[in-house]
Amino acid sequence: MRSLKEAEPLIEATNAALFGIGYPSAGEAQAAGSRWRSILHVAFARLNMGVDFGDRSPAFEGGLSDFGIAMLSDQYGQQVMNDRPGVLVYGDPKPLFFSSSAIARVLPSRRRAEGTFLEAARLEGLDVTQAERLAFELYGASFFETQADARLLMVMMALETLMEPRPRAPETQALVRDLIRQVKGSDLPTSEVSSIVGSLKWLESESIGQAGRRLVSVLGGRRYMDMEPAKFFTKCYTLRSALVHGHLQRPSRMDVDIAASNLQMLTGELLGRRLLHVTEEWLVEQGMTEDLETRQDTVNDEAGRGRAGSIWRTVRRLAGLRRAR
Asked: Could you tell me where the DSSP H helices lie in the chain?
């Protein structure tokens, strides 16, 4: 095993690969590579080391077309391959590996950022609950997750902290209690009775899916992936179940990534629902104009730092803000 950077010590590497040589056929090399991947899984787990094998990484989804590979192979006089996660089999000499990636950053306009902070400061009787604080921590942390699967699960956790399942209808509860009595009166082992009774008691209240759909329904006619909130929540909850309940055919990374991004938007709008009226159009109606000399439409680092500084200056001014209507 060695770093993918030339001459970099393995202990300092952030990207590394395990190389094997001398196999008589591509099939035997593939089989050996698959075996060694399994070896790495159990060894790293025993060492309590987290390693990303890149299977769900967007960085490996792009690449060269067949035409591009042929063109570069001719240009450099050697084999060119798209870099992919997992086992790659090739002959001598070692080919050139190609990969590409991009990082995008989306910032709100200065007008919208400052207007939102100013309007938030004018809210009366604002009381953020402990559940909302925890939900925001999870929601905020999700933006630092680079893997789509983890991001979706973290945002769903944020939503679940806000759910308060309501009791089911009296006749439903009566049926559940009758089932509980039957289980308690059975000849099943005590441990089995306790387990089943515990599961049945959950049925006295609405399901997580029902509670979640009711929770997001306050967002009304807003759309996420062209779906109304309750339907979109059901889609995301189905994806969440497919990820955590051992489905061998996991949803594609792209499907999860798109859903996670939209679920972040839904969760942000739910947590900030008191400010849903603050839009660019509303700010224009309020007569709030943006300083065109400081407006930046690019996303380079300098513009990002300048706008962020402007936003934080606005935040610092809010401590002494007075309501003026």
From this structure: 26-46, 66-76, 110-121, 130-142, 148-162, 170-184, 190-202, 208-216, 229-244, 253-271, 280-285, 301-317
The answer to whether 207 and 165 are in contact (CB under 8 A) is yes
Q: What's the DSSP call for residue 300?
A: S
Distance separating alpha carbons of residues 239 and 250, to the nearest angstrom: 9
Compute φ and ψ for 191, nearest 5 degrees: -65, -40
Could you please report the per-residue DSSP string of 130-153? HHHHHHHHHHHHHTT--SHHHHHH
Q: Residue 319 has what pLDDT?
A: 47
Q: In the predicted model, is pLDDT for residue 302 greater than 50?
A: no
Identify the helix (H) or strand (E) that includes residue 81: strand 80-82
* Dist CA 211 CA 208 (whole Å): 5
Q: Could you tell me which residues are beta bridge partners of residue 96? A: 80
The crossing angle, in degrees rounded to 10, of helices 229-244 and 253-271 is 130
Return the pLDDT at 289. 75
Residues 6+ apart with CB under 8 A from 92: none
Q: Which residue has the higher pLDDT, 317 or 42?
A: 42
Rounded to whole angstroms, the Cα distance separating 260 from 157 reads: 12
pLDDT at 190: 95
Band of pLDDT at residue 301, cut at 50, 70 and 90 = very low
Give the span between the Cα atoms of 117 and 126, in whole angstroms: 14
What is the separation of C-alpha 4 from the centre of its chain, rounded to a whole number of angstroms? 27
Tokens representing 108?
């709100």
CB 219 within 8 A of CB 166: no
Segment 87-111, tens digit of pLDDT: 999 988 889 888 877 777 778 888 8
- Helices 253-271 and 148-162 meet at what angle, rounded to 10? 30
| β pairing state of 80-82 and 96-98 | parallel
